[in-house]
Sequence to fold (520 residues):
Amino acid sequence: MRNYRLILEYDGTDFAGFQYQPGERTVQSTLEEAISKLAHASGRVTGAGRTDAGVHALGQVASFWAELPVPVERLAAALNSLLPRDLSVAAAGEAEADFHARYSAISRRYLYVIRQRRQRSGIWDRYSWRVGDEISLAAMSAGSRFLIGEKDFAAWGTATGRSKSTVRQVKQIKAGRRGRFVLIWIEANGFLKHMVRRVVGTLVEVGLGRRDPEDIQAITQQRDIRLAGPVAPAAGLCLVRVRYPQMEWDKSNGDENLFG
Amino acid sequence: MRNYRLILEYDGTDFAGFQYQPGERTVQSTLEEAISKLAHASGRVTGAGRTDAGVHALGQVASFWAELPVPVERLAAALNSLLPRDLSVAAAGEAEADFHARYSAISRRYLYVIRQRRQRSGIWDRYSWRVGDEISLAAMSAGSRFLIGEKDFAAWGTATGRSKSTVRQVKQIKAGRRGRFVLIWIEANGFLKHMVRRVVGTLVEVGLGRRDPEDIQAITQQRDIRLAGPVAPAAGLCLVRVRYPQMEWDKSNGDENLFG
Fold:
């Protein structure tokens, strides 16, 4: 058996999230099914981030142990021929024995796309949250500064992993405008369940003037999830990059660069 | 009866193009069906550009005569509640009696998206053409200069309208890189059938070094469609804007600004 790693892209619209759930079409089970068609033997696939139903990925990382008859340089193409149209492998490689897509990752970077329009869109609603009223980037940025650093994010999400700790380190939050779109990038060593979407939902309330930027600090300090704003819709969210220590391989696949 | 105009957005993937065809799911028939649910009386819908099957739109313009019980400021929302997910109205207005989405238009602007990757993508293949080898923007731009101006474009497409003339005026061709994407914008007073896609297919051959930029001039001068390169795939193409004389209303709806 060898340890493999993949960079995955998917349109999350028709998936019930990354993680296996009985009877549901998930990224994990769809990928495991494709691998099992190639493999003499294989185990569970692990993902770097457990994206929710409807959340997209341009740089999800997965790893799995398997005995594959396919040379690693042809693995991406072999899997792509077996996967459905809305899930693909951008790159595949062999990993060190101690590599684990989830536990080895040192940071995850998400992009959230907001479209400043009142009418729905035949193209963009699939990949964005529609907010008609004008969002102030300055107010949103002022609020986001209170989230940077290592903090207890209990007000922003729930722990779902092995550890019950709600401490995470947010490395960067950046907001920008492209035409009628507002884009928010958030990078952290890890995220609690719904954390990115709850942060975005609350920052948008700040950007709309319904809350003060300082509210973000108060919510964090009080560690009470009922004080935070709404969870922003899944469609606007995309996992764009996962970083690993001392690894050249984890370079961005570049597809999110379309957004600058 | 009043004359109405609409700006339309659609994901062309699941449409057999704009124009009505018996038994096919087209943009025109889908829109006519929605209008007929609202209208006391209505006629045929006209589109500014007859986009092919699989071609997208962020700024298609349509016009139609109808007797509608809905005030015009609520027309976009009313139609959006009746249209399927992949087709939407970005804006609606009442037009002058002599306005005709097709014949009144003075220019159409298309965006073509090329993704420089070898592996297919679960997200981007829907909206782009995948070209693995490196495309030279300089060579492509050098070739595109031979297409600017009023010329006989018989080598680049076929006339399908009332007039059999193959003379068109190309106003601008611009190419740019965004990360791993190559974007090509083309604006003309009108286009022949498959003209944008054949121009893109041929410019990409120039960009890959398989043809000289001067070939573009020779092909145009010889007016022989067999000399031109392949028709680029529909998925990469999007109608982003239609202009009308002395009209404020035809402003870009701004959604293509995501691409700079």
Q: What stands out?
A: Residues 107-240 of chain B form a domain with the Alpha-Beta Plaits fold (CATH 3.30.70.660). Chain B has two domains: 2-104, 107-240. Helices of chain B lie at 27-38, 75-80, 137-144, 195-207, 214-222.
